[in-house]
Each structure stands twice: as C-alpha cells, then as structure tokens.
Amino acid sequence: MKHAKLLVVNCVKRVSKSFSTSPFSLQRHYKILVVGAGSGGCSIAHKFSSKLKAGHVGIIEPSNDHFYQPMWTLVGAGMANLANSGKKMSKVIPKKADWLQTKAMAFDPDKCIVTLETGEQVHYDYLVMATGLQLNYDKIKGLPEGFNTDPSLCSVYDYNFVQKTLPAIQNFKGGNAIFTLPNTPIKCSGAPQQIMYLADEMWTEIGIRDKANIYYNSSLPVIFYVQKYADTLLQVLDRRSITVNYMRNLIEVKTYTREAIFQKLDSPREETESFKYDFLHVTPPMSTPDPVRESPLVDSTGFVDVDKETLQHVKYPNIFALGDCSNVPTSKTSAAAATQGGYLEKNLNAVMNGKQPFAKYDGYSSCPVITSRGKCILVEFNYDCLPLETFPFNQAKERRSMYLLKKNIIPQIYWHMMLRGLWNGPKFLRKVMHLGMDGPEKDYTHSKDIKGTN
Ligand SMILES: Cc1cc2nc3c(=O)[nH]c(=O)nc-3n(C[C@H](O)[C@H](O)[C@H](O)COP(=O)(O)OP(=O)(O)OC[C@H]3O[C@@H](n4cnc5c(N)ncnc54)[C@H](O)[C@@H]3O)c2cc1C
Questions:
Q1: What's the rounded Cα separation, in Å, for the pair 338 and 332?
Q2: For the purposes of burial, counting CB atoms within 10 Å of the CB of 383, is it exposed (0-12), middle (13-18) or buried (19 or more)?
Q3: pLDDT tens-digit series, residues 29-59
Q4: Domains 8-134+287-352 and 135-285 share a fold
Q5: Which of 410, 385, 319 minimizes the C-alpha distance to 107?
Q6: CATH class (in words) of the domain with range 135-285
Q7: Is 112 considered catalytic here?
Q8: Are the CB atoms for 304 and 112 separated by under 8 Å?
Q9: What topology is assigned to 8-134+287-352 in CATH?
Q10: N or C of the chain: less Cβ packing under 10 Å?
Q11: What is the mean pLDDT of the segment spanning 289-310?
C-alpha cells in the first residue's frame, strides 16, 4: 500500500541529526513530534520548525494532499471547484521539518514513543496531537455502500461524496429532501445547514421548490447553541419553509426502498421513525481516528484529554493537542484550531523552558454560515456560547460582505497565513475594530456546554 511505505521527506542529509544512537539500533527521535498535518498540525509544525534547528520537528501524516475542507460546502453547490480546494502536502509541510509519510498507529506516552504503520517506533520529547476526525459513515446501516448505488445520496464531508452532491441536487425533481446532523461531535456543524440553504435556492430557481418538502433532521435539541445566531437561523428556516425535526439521529438508509430510519432521541423507548426520501444529504457520525481513540491519550468520550485553557494533556505534561481531535468543549473548526495554535505555541514554549503553561484559550470558534448564494452570517463565540464578534456591526445579520469574506478572503488567510503558523485568529483585529474593548457580548442567554456540537 502506498501509505504504508514510510517516506522521510526533506531529511536525507539531516538524518544523523534526527537519530540518536543506542548501543543496539538507530532510533528516530524528535524534540517535537506532530501527529497530523491538517489545519492545526501544519500550522503548529511551522511555528516550531522556524524556531528550532532543521530535523528537530517531525510530522507524521499519511496523506499526499492537504484540503481546505471549508470549500467543500461551496463545491457541493457547484460554486467552487474541488481541485482548487487542495494542495500537495509536500507544498504545505515546513521544509525544515521531517515528514514521515505514514500513519501513527499506537501511542506509549509513558515511554514517549509513537509506533508507525511501518512498525517503526519514533521517540519524542514533546508530542502535539492534531489528527482531526474520522468520518464514520459505516455506523449508519446501509452506508457507505449506499453511496455507490443511490444517486440521490450525497455528503459534503467526504472527498468522494462531495462530488455526488451537485448532481444529486440537480437531479432532484421533487418529493422529500432530507439533511441530517448526527449525535456525535462533528466538524463545522454549520455545513449541513449551508448546503441545505443553497440546495433550496437552486430548487427555487428552477421552479420545483413547491414540489419539495425539505427536512432538517438534527440530533440536537436546538438549531444552534448561540442564541443570537439561532434567532437568525430560525428566521431563515421559517422564510424558506424548511421543517426542522429535533432529536432525530440517522441510523439506517434503505436505498432499495429509499427510506431513512431515524432514532428518536427524545423518546424514552427506543423508538424509530422512517422517512421516505428523494434526496438525502448525510452528515456522518465522527470520532477521533481509531489509533487515537484506542490510545491512553483520550478521555471516556474518545477525544484527547487536555486542559481546555492551556491545551496541555491532563496526565502527560509533554503532550498537547489542538483542532478537532481534542476534547475542548467548543465547536470544531479551522478557526478554532488557528486560535488554539497561538495559545499552544506559548504554552509549549513555556514547558520546554521549564515553566508552567500560562496562556488561556477562551474557546473562540467561528464559522461563516452561508444562508443563500451571496449572503452569510459570521458566527463567532466563546466557551460560554457568547458572541465574540470581530466586526463592529451585527454579524447575525445576513450580509454580502461576510459572504465575500468567506469565499475570497478567509481561504487566502488559510493558505498563506494559518498554515504557515502566522495566523492565531482575529483577536488583534477584534481589539482594533472595537477600539480596544475586547470581550464577549453578554446580553444573550446561552447553554453551559456545547461539546463541539455547535
Ligand atoms: C464540509 C466542511 C465545511 C467546513 N467549514 C468550515 C468553515 O467554514 N470554517 C471553519 O473554520 N472550519 C470549517 N470546517 C472544519 C475544518 O475543516 C476542521 O475543523 C479543521 O480542518 C480541523 O483541523 P485539524 O487539524 O484538527 O484536522 P484536519 O484538518 O482534518 O487534519 C487532520 C490530519 O490528521 C491526519 N491523520 C489522521 N489520522 C492520522 C494518523 N493516525 N496518523 C497521522 N496523521 C493522521 C489526516 O490525514 C489529516 O491530514 C469544515 C469542514 C468540512 C468537512
């Protein structure tokens, strides 16, 4: 298998620096070992490899390509090209770091060893976990096989299934169109609503909307946990005559009868409800990748167990985590990973210098939620689900400017600043825009704990 082969990129000349010699064998040893080179891992690897000598940072990452996943919502609606959402991994990984192109398969935090898919063991002084999430379509009976046989099934969360989304929207001629949200933490939970609003708009434009019943079947009890943005989204749903069914979790897809079976999470008995579908957009259940979920690094929910402010592991002080794989109770987005990177950098530096971590992450997360082609609300909030807005105007209002920001500006920030470790979120901009008054809006009711589901 291609991925099973260990490729050490950029380290041929430096090999002797990266290896320490034991009497019996050469062993690969890094000062900082980063697992995963997605949004969070790539950014943190750049931050540290620019400070440390070449060969002191190692990155374990199996994929050949790096994707800007937020673009997939637009790809699904035919508003962006899938090919433009990715770059070769070799182009985004820092040149001064060693790229071990394989999977991390086992973690021994007591011995500071990560075992690779090749069987090789890599030693580290400090470990940064950034493996993101695994998509578990197979937890839904009938999937993922159903995607191969039923053209009305699609999903913007997966590289292959996002390509089925536009044809499925275009081929829909009326009937039931269902969009789902699972009962696990997921990345960017705004994405299922965005593709729904864009599909609705397309069906309106081609004149079939009055033949369609659109359902948003969500495992959550609310549309969004930040009240300010929930208020806007409820208006959008109402305006578009979309039916929301709360506490409905997709458990089975019968492609032969075109039925989607949902578990009723609000029912004391294990009741299910069946919906006939003519179009089904599936947001899959997600978890950390199996090797992480089965490691000693995780809490009882299977996410890397870190302090929610310092991002330092609660048991192993030389381990940190950022991005979707950690158990910090905020929404899982690139925007959150970027902000966490700034705090992680400060705290890991402190620990490397024999000090205590001091920088405290406030749970900042953000997602531009597209409500129609050309309009967007920019949600930004903290651990308390209080709005923490960058701009000095009401971001819960649907605006063209925020859409242009999402489509044209944020991707540039991502590729040219975040991935290079140069973007720690918009905190400084927020201060400037609010004339030095930085802080959440307090006049909103909020839920206590969102556990990454927002
Ligand atoms: C459709 C969609 C829309 C989105 N929209 C937005 C948005 O508008 N705004 C926003 O901020 N965010 C959005 N996101 C979420 C955002 O993409 C993620 O939150 C972000 O990528 C998380 O970064 P990460 O580094 O934790 O994980 P990822 O970027 O997913 O990277 C994880 C990396 O770890 C690697 N890996 C996995 N297992 C192993 C292993 N065993 N060993 C080594 N490496 C491993 C993977 O190959 C991958 O490269 C969206 C996501 C999707 C899918």
A1: 11
A2: buried
A3: 999 999 999 999 999 999 999 999 999 999 9
A4: yes
A5: 319
A6: alpha beta
A7: no
A8: no
A9: FAD/NAD(P)-binding domain (3.50.50)
A10: N
A11: 98
